[in-house]
Amino acid sequence: MVSRNHSRGSGFFKPGLLSIGGYPKKLQVSDGLMHVPATQVARSHLKTILSNPESRRIFYFLVLNLSYMMVQMLYGVWTNSLGLISDGMWSEFLVLSSIK
């Protein structure tokens, strides 16, 4: 008869990580880290972008391209036009490639 000795803490899984969902305790958000709302972060970035004339022009160009792309995609799906859908996807990748 083969005896299997399983001691606590041996093996692949560590006992402390399983009780927290697989993450170390120091990475939990509730341990005193500040939570900033996403809208506040977005407003801060938008204010920074719109304060500089050059970045404002680039931002307006990206918004115009994204809106044109959305119109192409929606109209292409509505009319089952593969050409409009593929052109809309190409426009999307073009806009995403210009964002650093």
Short description:
The chain has 100 residues and is mainly alpha-helical. Helix content is 62%, strand content 0%. The chain has a domain at 53-100.
Summarize the SSE layout with pairings.
Layout: H1 15-18, H2 38-51, H3 53-79, H4 82-98
Helix pairs in contact: 3-4
Describe the protein's architecture and organization:
With 100 residues, the chain is mainly α. It has a domain at 53-100. 62% of the residues lie in helices and 0% in strands. The chain contains four helices and no strands. It has helices at 15-18, 38-51, 53-79, 82-98. Helix 3 runs antiparallel to helix 4 (82-98). The longest helix has 27 residues, at 53-79. The protein is elongated, with a radius of gyration of 25 Å. The termini are far apart. The model is unreliable at 16-20 (pLDDT under 50).
In which range does the helix fraction lie?
55-70%
| Main sheet: strands, sense, barrel | none
With helices defined by DSSP (H or I, 4 residues minimum), what is the helix count? 4
Secondary-structure-based class equals mainly alpha
Please mark out the parts with pLDDT under 50 across 5 or more consecutive residues, or reply none: 16-20
Strand content: under 5%
Using DSSP, what is the number of strands?
Answer: 0
Overall pLDDT metric? 76
Please compute the radius of gyration using only Cα atoms: 25 Å
Oligomeric nature of the chains: single chain
N-to-C span: 64 Å
Large-scale geometry: elongated
Element-by-element helix/strand order: HHHH
